[in-house]
Amino acid sequence: MPIANSYTPGTAFAQPLSESQKEIWFSAQVSDAACAAFNQSGVLELAGGLDASALSDTLDELVARHDALRTTFSVLGEEQRVHEDLPLFCPVVDLSVHGPAEQKAKVESRLRSEVQTPFDLTKGPMIRAALMKLAAAKHLLVITVHHLICDGTSLNLLLEELAEQYSARAKAGSGAGEKARPMQFSEFVAQERESGSKRSEAEKYWVAQFETPPTFLELPTDYPRLKVRTFRGGGGFLRLDEAVAQEFRRMAAKNRCTLFAASLAAFYVLMHRLSGQTDLVVGVPISVRLTEGSNEVVGHCVNFLPLRIRLTGNPTFTEHLGNVRGMLLDALDHVDYNFGSLIQKLNLPRHPTRGPLVSTMFNVDHIRKDFEWEGLEVELRSNPFCLTNFDFSLSLEDHGGRLEAHCLHSADMFEAATIGRWLRHFEMVLRGAAANPQCRIGELPLLTAAEQELLVNCSGTEEHLIRDLLPKELAALTRPGTAGLEMYVLDAYGQFAVPGVAGELCIAGLPLSEIALPDAKLLNNPARAHDGNLLFRTGYRAKYLGNGDVEILDAVRPVESAPAEIEAAPRAACSGVQSKLTEIWREVMGLDSIEPTDDFFDLGGHSLLITQIVARVRATFAVQLSLRDFFEAPTIRDLAGMIEQQIMQEVQQLPEIQADRLAEALAVA
User: Fold this and answer.
1) Fewest CB within a 10 Å sphere: which of 38, 71, 303, 473?
2) Calpha distance 240→403 (Å, rounded)
């Protein structure tokens, strides 16, 4: 099979893997479960009269249209092979003859099999579909793809095309007619190989970020980490309170942050409060669809960025948000480097119990679920039977008006109930940050009122157990029958520790006024903060269990605390490039009208749109516009002024004759 540098319609060819694909291919070689952990699976509930023949033809058309879906990989992973034809067989399983209970069991079995069965990377295809008939007018369509050939954006593109092409066939008995050929993934990979200088600069940045290796993030587990990963996963879901979601969006916009940056900051707070660690690394998948036409590419078009931040000094959420925004902008300016290359450059060892460098992942997905299928009502949902590469990952799905938190976790390490509590803690961080962004991160509430009430109500215990934990001089003052002795577990910030998280055991109800104690042994009682009630610090580590009971662990060790800095934003004047900028913004954002003073974030702008606009501006005006520059000038007028200023600085450095010629050319333009 010949090696090709670009896509040639109607021919089979091979080309090297992209840098991001190489890391996934390597990780998938560990075991069948490791390979299946990269499966992405979606379930379409189809209600109405389904044309199964039109569906089958449409699936074949998708495979023919996108070369990534006809791709396999060589045994040693040195190349990927695009085939002229790679048939996609979609079996139809009739479950309508079974009763409700048996049908449900068979559906679950099939869904589990679809997502947990590994793909054969050498033979393909690396996409599969299955149709389950539940009743005459009710079907489930399961589509599963491997992450090597399809990222999350690509899967959404495929679902949109599937709806469009099926509807055309169902109406007219044939496809939607000749469609413009989209950019192929092979072309995308070829373009990536040409960006060598950018990659070199990005490599320096990322290597510097990890000059000092971080420690692994140690979340509080329900079960010990296994010696060898099974990749067995579980899922969790929480629809966030709509009022909280709206207030959090407003807070983010007021601080010139996208929903992504603000919610990532909240996720860091949650990880910090759960682990007690201050040096945190969270993995984030970032789209690198920056060139014209790349928005329609189906393939693996993301770089996985390990975003590191240090949370020390107990900053306010606003200060923390400023730090996260600055770190994120710097990272996005160096997006042309992939995770696998960094691991090799750092020469990090592979560990059998966890992945390198990153054990948690965060993402924000902008979801479209209103796919229109001719004659059908359709609902999209994720496949609940999953494998996972991470200890814990959270994806915030943005459905326009509402937010949904979806998570995957290692089922070998965490109970579903624990993950459910963490999702509620995340919502509480959003609620607290939205209500008071000047609140320090150590004081942001994690527990709901009901959860805190449970801990307070369960704080009493047998008095002789409490006396055994006290120094002799205090124990002597607690006579049998003393009322009101209670045990609390507090975190490093003096707040109630959330269940499962180790904190310091403290005692309430002691006659502390009868003995002289150093201030370091006393803490304010968070359950009675209003009346100055004090607690005695025992020096023992303990944790709450899910039912509110206290488990004593061992002698206490100090827990670390939390950084800050907020950037200023310069403003520039407007210029004649406004009209071209307006054209770019309208095309990228899909808006008919934009005023020069309209704020990008008020128009609904998000991270992916920023990267697309910046890439177009760089190509159009030949300027070195950074993502940080864009955040500092979020209107067309201000951005135009910044571009004009940069052009004028370059013109002033030219010899006089070249400057005159450039001025003439600009005047003509």
Assistant:
1) 473
2) 6
User: What is the C-alpha to C-alpha distance for residues 394 and 363, in angstroms, rounded to an integer?
Assistant: 7
pLDDT in tens, 21-75: 999 998 999 889 999 999 999 999 999 999 999 999 999 999 999 999 999 999 9
Tell whether the model's pLDDT for residue 312 goes beyond 70. yes
Q: Which amino acid is at 245?
A: A
Strand ordering across the sheet containing 80-82? 13-15, 80-82, 71-73
5 within 8 A of 15, measured Cβ to Cβ? yes
For residue 4, the model assigns a pLDDT of: 43
CATH classification number, 13-189, choose in 3.40.50.300, 2.40.128.90, 1.10.760.10, 3.30.559.10: 3.30.559.10
| Residue carrying structure tokens 């699936």 | 59
Give the DSSP letter string of 247-295: HHHHHHHHTT--HHHHHHHHHHHHHHHHH--SEEEEEEEEE---STTGG
Please compute the mean of the pLDDT values over residues 195-220 and round it to a whole number.
Answer: 89
Burial of 575 per CB tally in 10 Å (0-12, 13-18, 19+): middle
Q: What is the pTM of this model?
A: 0.84
End-to-end CA distance of the chain: 47
Which one, of 619, 632, 631, lies nearest residue 581 by Cα?
619
Q: Model confidence at 197, in pLDDT bands (50, 70, 90)?
A: low
Distance CA 629, CA 584 (A): 17
* Top-level class of domain 578-668: mainly alpha
Q: Choose among 175, 182, 6, 152: nearest CA to 82.
A: 6
